[in-house]
Amino acid sequence: MYKVAVIGAGSWGTALAQVLTDNDNHVVVYDIEESVINDINENHRNSKFFPDIELPVDLKATTSLAEALDGAHFALLSVPTKVMRVALSNMKPHLSPSTVVINASKGIEPSTHKRVSEVVAEVLGEKTCFVVLSGPSHAEEVVIRELTSVTCAGNDVEILFDVQQMFSNEYFRVYRNTDLIGVEVGGSIKNVMALGSGILAGLGYGDNARASLITRSLIEIKRLGVAIGANEETFDGLSGLGDLIVTTMSRHSRNFQAGFKIGSGSDLNEALDSMTMVVEGVRTCLATYELSKELNIDMPFVDAIYDVVFNRNDPKEVISKMMTRPMKSEIPRKV
To answer: Which band of pLDDT confidence, cut at 50, 70 and 90, is reported for residue 277?
Structure first.
């Protein structure tokens, strides 16, 4: 069907590369780590992330960006947000103007508070066709072909149809949405809330507390999203509520795991050093906190998580302040 260059051989990039290969696309994975590339090509495995999973023999990998992007109809980004700008700059000389860029990473650029679509426009040009793929989807489940549904969003509806067809099969289903801002915001800030959920669990709090966090944090995400142009309904969908639930409640969530370690007594550096994968929620927490202050958006959960993670405040004291704030109506202007 299509040639797809997957940029980044991490857990998510590998899982999506397998989905695309299952659907008879010609897939080439690019990464700078030669041992991972050799493992994929020679052993049909990515032992760094999935030692027990045998990958399709048709899945190829390379350390050459030029080779990966040569003739590619789509370039699928699966790299940490903090290196996204560098990755795009390296891709630019090898990228055809007709190549559609799909972002599967979730985060906000720390220094600029820009969404990935904005970074892509700056580096590759405003005319670059861009799509974001987001939703409740742990790589650990996708790679063993468990049932998963996600959303793709962009401005070109015809391209969205193509992306749906390219990814969808009997275990992986893709919906479409034209609210690019909302899908990007929902997929990014849910990582911050997963840190908070992990902190609560690490402190020994139960389902009641985490259900409150999920419900009230969704309202905060909506506030920020709508303020920058998102459609509020998007946050009730897969890239909003769906992704928020799975990331705040699952053992697979690296952001939840990092929060759990912090709640259990580790400091931020200890928690991050113990993780084998990137914890996007930490950087996104800082970016979201700063952005909310710039826009004067009330985000108490983001403030609380920031206080614990960056100000090193005692999490129990922060929670006590959260719970004893002035009383308010659950639904503004209704009571």
So the answer is: very low
Same domain, 124 and 226: no
Torsion sign, CA atoms 247, 251, 257, 261: positive
Looking at the structure, tell me whether residues 71 and 156 fall in a common domain: yes
Give the list of residues 6+ apart from residue 211 with CB closer than 8 angstroms, or none: none
54 belongs to a structural domain? yes
Phi-psi region of 278 (alpha: psi -120 to 50; beta: other; left: phi over 0): beta
Can you give the residue range of the structural domain that contains 119?
3-178
Q: For position 103, which CATH number holds? A: 3.40.50.720
Active site residues: 190
DSSP 3-state percent helix, strand, coil across the chain (nearest 5): 55, 15, 35
CA angle in degrees (0–180, nearest 5) for 219-223-228 = 150
Whether 187 and 145 map to the same domain: the answer is: no
Q: How many domains is the chain partitioned into structurally?
A: 2
Tell me the DSSP string of 5-39. Answer: EEE--SHHHHHHHHHHHHTT-EEEEE-S-HHHHHI
Are residues 225 and 297 located together in one domain of the fold? yes
pLDDT tens-digit map of 267-276: 666 665 655 4
Say if pTM beats, i.e. exceeds, 0.85: yes
